[in-house]
Design a protein that fits this description.
73% helix, single chain, MetI-like fold, mainly alpha
Length: 269
């Protein structure tokens, strides 16, 4: 960490701050997430640091709770996509044959459809509840994880110690978790930050379009979608959620680049 660039330190500080705010939102936020506390479009100043929105709700409190909802759901979705895609990718690389071909062709079909449009169609069919949002985006994003995990697991699955585990009669689960996964963890960890950015932006875009996290639950995407209608009355209603999305995407990319460089064995030589 002493050798980490300043951009990585900046990203780490912002991420830790966001996580602290998200976890302790009920104690950090001065008001409730949907509590009407004043008049519409109150200007900045005590006790409303960022003013109030079109319904008289405190903008700072909604941004804080929006961090919990947006980032928390994005982390859960990314973790689920890595669980699905990573396990299937390793299984395809180890088993090979028709299983590998079947899974690979299914993934190719899903990746041929634009992810955002596919998510919009599925959410329109099954409803835009938070569980549906997490499952649909995780399944769609797991196709990218599948491609990566299969590619790196193919190299490991051809090595002698994996073949020795097969000859010993070890089960598929043992080979995946004990032999293959520890040797492909670095690229998967580096990919996690990149996939989180895409999932985070997808959730924000769907919320902006009205099919993601639904009001009155605050999320930066739906706050931006609502705020754009009232820009003439108060520009900050849409500006602050947009800045939060921008800064989060930026710092995750900075951290992802630093982590990728740290895990790249060629940079350690």
């Amino acid at each position: 960490m002493r050798k980490a660039p300043l951009t990585a330190w900046f990203g780490l500080i912002v991420i830790v701050t966001y996580l602290f705010i998200a976890i302790f939102a009920p104690w950090v936020a001065p008001f409730g997430q949907s509590e009407v506390v004043s008049n519409q479009y109150d200007p900045w100043g005590a006790p409303f640091i960022f003013g109030t929105d079109q319904l008289g709700r405190d903008m700072l409190s909604r941004l804080i709770y929006g961090a919990r909802n947006t980032i928390g759901i994005a982390v859960l979705t990314t973790g689920l996509s890595f669980l699905i895609g990573g396990m299937l990718g390793m299984a395809a690389a180890i088993l090979g044959g028709w299983i590998d071909q079947l899974l690979s062709r299914l993934v190719d079909i899903l990746m041929a459809i634009p992810q955002l449009i596919f998510a919009l169609v599925l959410l329109s069919m099954f409803g835009s509840s938070i569980p549906n949002l997490i499952i649909i985006i995780a399944v769609l994003d797991s196709t990218r994880v599948f491609r990566l995990s299969r590619a790196v697991a193919l190299n490991v699955a051809a090595l002698d110690f994996v073949e020795a585990a097969r000859l010993q009669g070890e089960k598929l689960g043992w080979i995946m978790t004990r032999e293959v996964l520890p040797n492909i963890t670095p690229p998967l960890v580096a990919e996690f930050g990149l996939r989180f950015c895409f999932v985070f932006l997808t959730i924000s875009a769907l919320s902006f379009l009205g099919l993601g996290i639904q009001p009155p639950t605050p999320a930066w995407g739906n706050m931006l979608g609502e705020g754009r209608l009232y820009m003439l009355n108060s520009w900050c209603i849409a500006t602050f959620p947009g800045l939060a999305i921008f800064v989060t995407t930026l710092v995750i990319n900075l951290m992802g680049n630093a982590l990728r460089d740290w895990l790249d064995p060629h940079l350690k030589l």
